[in-house]
Amino acid sequence: MTALLHLDASARRNSVSRLLGTAFADAWRGEHPAGGYTYRDLAADPIPFIGEGWTELCDRVLARGSTDLDRLGELVNSPAQQEAWEIVEPLLTEVRAADVILIGTPMYNYSIPASLKAWLDQITFPRMSLAPRRFVVVTARGGAYSPGAPKAIYDYQERYLRDFFAGHFAVQDTVFVNAELVNSRHDPALAHLREKHEASYTAALDTARRLGKEY
Ligand SMILES: Cc1cc2nc3c(=O)[nH]c(=O)nc-3n(C[C@H](O)[C@H](O)[C@H](O)COP(=O)(O)O)c2cc1C
Hints:
5 strands; Rossmann fold; alpha/beta; 6 helices; 215 residues; binds flavin mononucleotide
């Protein structure tokens, strides 16, 4: 059965990345009425940061050369590791049950919010492949980082997620849909960029809807 895992990470309720994610998810669910759908709001219900028990479990995975995610829980051998595993296990189960993983995320300080990083830290174990799952990341940024923009080199949001999913999860084809210049809605000094923002936002919404139908 096909299944979508939908994550949001914006600290805002009235959030552009949330709207883009909803556009994709609504379109996807319209195409897959019998598909599985799981939603997790990483900002409203934050995932704890990893602790020492988690690092012990990770070291045991490394020491055993273990690659079988089904057997990860068998490596637990202390109360601290058990405590860590009780956080990891349901998160990993959600990821593994999905064939499409949709992440709605703002750009914070050139990168991703701590809420999303906390989730990634919890679910990532050595030598773990998530292929052939497909990742779609819908983002909102205050500025512009598209190729050719003066600040393009500071986009550690898309580049980080793309490289991490490719290098660590063996997922090479993550698709990004970015709405740019959102700060022009709020900052009078950027009012002249409002039209460019509207065009970027409208294009991103259309793309999110189209991809939701195609996936
Ligand atoms: C803590 C914080 C850090 C931000 N850092 C950046 C940044 O580095 N670059 C940028 O272009 N916009 C930055 N912004 C603006 C957000 O990317 C913008 O408001 C975007 O719309 C947030 O996504 P959302 O609408 O889904 O919440 C930041 C906003 C916040 C709240």
